[in-house]
């Protein structure tokens, strides 16, 4: 199972390298006729090596000293968490920081099985509006706003 | 001299020193967090600070977390950081005998002295290496970067191919954006956001902080332990008789290993422990609660903190992820890392030297109350720690350039980091590749221009570059030769 996922990842990386290699010919970079120095030369060499190493990793036999950090038991919950964070990230430019992150923290706490009302409310207040107030107003580090010049 | 004193001995730097060291010890003591996650979640606090206080905070977190790992290693047999794994071997048996406070005392004194010895080595070695490095041309710097990347790949989880692949991905990611020479757009896919390339800090936060949170959720690896209040007791001076040699030797090993790219404190502590066990007359007691085992492990892992800064400050080459994050903090403050870092920003480098010494001294003082609080620290629910990591990750990515799309980058790299971790792909070479990528390209292209586009002349340009390339080739070949020899050795053993 681990060997299969390893191979799938290697082949995925090879596909990505090949796609980027193809893009390098159609997606800009341009040619400088006056110089041998081309902007896409090094990326193409690196992408070629990347693809070769990826194929090598995919084809090599399983090794006993290959290590991973652990076994994923809750992939569904993790996927939901990553999906939720993508939504938060996508909505930041339009909705600002406070609203999407506070909503995201509520979902995050629920996903992490925090069901007790008081710890839920306190954690939500500290990690959401609390940290926003500390960074945005206390430390003066500007976070994205819902409206330019608005309060939040 | 007076500038250094003003830079260091002001309320902001001293406050950052105390806060960073305390946070570092707490982060290190909580099993599962570690130096890199600690630095990633503390990064956003440094964006609004001046250069020296921000580096002080990060160095405090780094040194504090390396030491803090020993607290949980000794008291609950669960090293807070991988660097403290060797400390459990003798620390926990001592705690089981009811000598947990004394074991912590041995660990604290050994950590502080190991850290101070490495500061001395750093102060002596870095300027010499830097002076030598200023004579490097483009080809030599390029060869040095190739050597650093191959060394890091070669020691990556025992899998050189995966390490190299990740290093290449890091280099490639560094090339995304506007070409610095011709101004051409590379892999921007028509989006203005990518024209400035991927932000290093957003990538680091994604790969280490967010992926750690995702991994905790995915594996359900969030166990808590219980421990009653322990008071730290320092060992008597007479108890050091016959153990000073181990302290000095282990600090030396830590300094040596720390200065090599890609090795780190965990490797140093196990090497020191093994050497001490062989050499010491008390070797038989190792593993059964012998304080000398704690001294060997802790002196060496803390000695790494200073010496790891040698290539970072003298050559601008980060030896591991921690030093890569420290270099990225320099970039945020407008300082370009490289072989001229020490000559162009000597005031900052000198301040770092002083700060590192102070951190080690403060660690000794802060450790006493924090050890007493350790039982309460362990009671912090792990799911709230996970939620905190996620929120600090978002905050860091959102504030680094003030561009909300950096959060999208961080989440994307967080998801990628989880996949890489679950499949055993090392993350460190990717980050080091990303840090060194711009220098790699710049020196390669400049070298090619100077040599009429002839890459082969890189190997014949001078003896230093040739030696560096040769060492890089040997670093790559060593694991392959080792892998080829392994079956033969196994065959001969079975015969």
Largest interface: A-B, 73 and 70 residues
Identify the quaternary structure here: heterodimer
**Fraction of residues in helix of chain B:** over 70%
Quick one: how many beta strands of chain B? 2
Low-confidence stretches of chain A: none
| Overall 3D form of chain A | flat
Run of helices and strands of chain B: HHHHHHHHEEHHHHHHHHHHHHH
SS field, number of helical segments of chain B? 21
Give the amount of beta strand of chain A, in percent: under 5%
Kindly, what is the distance between the CA atoms of the first and last residues of chain A, rounded to a whole number of angstroms?
47 Å
Protein name (chain B): Putative tricarboxylic transport membrane protein
Transmembrane segments (chain B): 12-43, 55-76, 103-126, 138-157, 163-181, 193-215, 313-336, 348-368, 380-400, 407-436, 464-484
Domain DUF112 (chain B): 14-432
Keywords (chain B): Membrane, Transmembrane, Transmembrane helix
Explain what the structure shows.
The complex is a heterodimer of chains A (152) and B (495). Chain A is mostly helical and 152 residues long. Chain A folds into 2 domains: 2-71; 75-138, no CATH class. In chain A, 66% of the residues lie in helices and 0% in strands. Chain A is built from 5 helices and no strands. Chain A has helices at residues 2-26, 41-59, 75-95, 98-111, 117-138. In chain A, α3 packs antiparallel against α4. Chain A is flat and about 55 Å long. The N and C termini of chain A lie far apart (47 Å). The model of chain A has no long low-confidence stretch (mean pLDDT 84). By secondary structure, chain B is mostly helical. Chain B has one domain (2-493). Chain B has helices spanning 2-8, 11-29, 34-46, 51-76, 85-96, 100-133, 138-154, 160-174, 200-219, 244-259, 265-279, 291-307, 309-315, 321-332, 341-344, 346-377, 382-400, 405-422, 428-450, 457-460, 463-494, and strands at 177-178, 185-186. Chain B is globular and about 70 Å long. The mean pLDDT of chain B is 84. Classes of the chains: A mainly alpha (152), B mainly alpha (495). At the A-B interface, α1, α2, α3, α4 and α5 of A face α8, β2, α9, α17 and α18 of B.
């Amino acid at each position: 199972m681990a060997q299969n996922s390893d191979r799938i990842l290697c082949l995925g990386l090879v596909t990505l390298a090949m796609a980027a290699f193809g893009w390098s010919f159609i997606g800009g970079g341009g040619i400088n006729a006056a110089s041998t120095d081309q902007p896409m030369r090094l990326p193409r060499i690196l992408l070629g090596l990347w693809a070769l190493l990826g194929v090598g990793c995919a084809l090599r036999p399983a090794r006993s000293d290959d290590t991973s950090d652990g076994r994923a038991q809750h992939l569904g919950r993790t996927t939901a968490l990553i999906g939720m964070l993508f939504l938060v990230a996508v909505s930041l430019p339009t909705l600002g920081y406070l609203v999407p992150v506070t909503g995201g923290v509520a979902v995050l706490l629920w996903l992490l099985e925090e069901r007790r009302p008081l710890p839920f409310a306190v954690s939500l207040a500290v990690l959401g509006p609390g940290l926003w107030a500390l960074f945005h107003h206390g430390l003066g580090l500007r976070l994205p706003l819902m409206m330019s010049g608005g309060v939040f | 001299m007076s500038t250094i004193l003003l830079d260091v001995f002001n309320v902001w730097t001293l406050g950052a020193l105390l806060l960073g060291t305390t946070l570092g010890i707490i982060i290190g003591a909580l099993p599962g967090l570690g130096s890199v996650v600690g630095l990633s979640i503390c990064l956003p606090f440094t964006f609004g600070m001046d250069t020296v206080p921000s580096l002080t905070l990060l160095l405090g977190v780094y040194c504090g977390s390396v030491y803090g790992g020993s607290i949980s290693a000794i008291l609950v047999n669960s090293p807070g950081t991988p660097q403290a794994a060797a400390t459990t071997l003798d620390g926990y048996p001592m705690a089981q005998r009811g000598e947990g406070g004394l074991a912590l005392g041995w660990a604290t004194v050994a950590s502080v002295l190991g850290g101070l010895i490495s500061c001395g080595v750093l102060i002596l070695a870095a300027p010499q290496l830097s002076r030598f490095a200023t004579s490097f041309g483009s080809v030599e710097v390029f060869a040095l970067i190739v050597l650093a990347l191959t060394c890091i790949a070669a020691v990556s989880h025992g899998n050189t191919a995966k390490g190299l692949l990740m290093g290449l991905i890091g280099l490639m990611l560094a090339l995304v954006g506007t070409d610095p020479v011709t101004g051409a757009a590379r892999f921007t896919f028509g989006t203005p956001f990518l024209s400035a390339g991927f932000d290093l800090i957003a990538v680091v936060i994604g790969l280490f902080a967010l992926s750690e949170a995702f991994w905790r959720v995915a594996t359900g690896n969030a166990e808590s332990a219980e421990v009653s209040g322990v008071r730290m007791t320092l060992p008597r001076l007479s108890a050091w008789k016959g153990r000073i040699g181990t302290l000095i030797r282990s600090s030396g090993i830590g300094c040596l290993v720390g200065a090599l790219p890609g090795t780190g404190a965990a490797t140093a502590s196990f090497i020191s422990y093994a050497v001490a066990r062989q050499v010491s007359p008390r070797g038989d007691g190792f593993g059964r609660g012998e304080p000398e085992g704690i001294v060997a492990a802790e002196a060496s892992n803390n000695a790494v903190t200073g010496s790891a800064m040698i290539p970072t400050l003298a050559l601008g080459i980060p030896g591991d992820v921690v030093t890569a994050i420290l270099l990225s903090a320099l970039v945020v403050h407008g300082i370009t890392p490289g072989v001229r870092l020490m000559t162009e920003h000597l005031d900052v480098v000198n301040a770092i030297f002083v700060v590192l010494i102070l951190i080690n001294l403060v660690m000794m003082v802060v450790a006493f109350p924090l050890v007493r609080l350790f039982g309460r620290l362990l009671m912090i629910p792990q799911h709230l720690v996970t939620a905190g990591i996620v929120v600090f990750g978002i905050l860091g990515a959102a504030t680094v350039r003030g561009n909300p799309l950096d959060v999208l980058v961080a989440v994307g790299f967080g998801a990628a980091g989880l996949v890489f971790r679950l499949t055993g792909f090392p993350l460190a070479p990717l980050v080091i590749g990303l840090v060194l990528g711009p220098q790699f390209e710049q020196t390669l292209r400049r070298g090619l221009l100077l040599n009429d586009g002839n890459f082969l002349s890189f190997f014949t340009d001078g003896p230093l570059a040739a030696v560096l390339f040769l060492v890089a080739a040997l670093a790559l070949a060593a694991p392959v030769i080792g892998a080829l020899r392994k079956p033969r050795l196994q065959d001969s053993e079975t015969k």
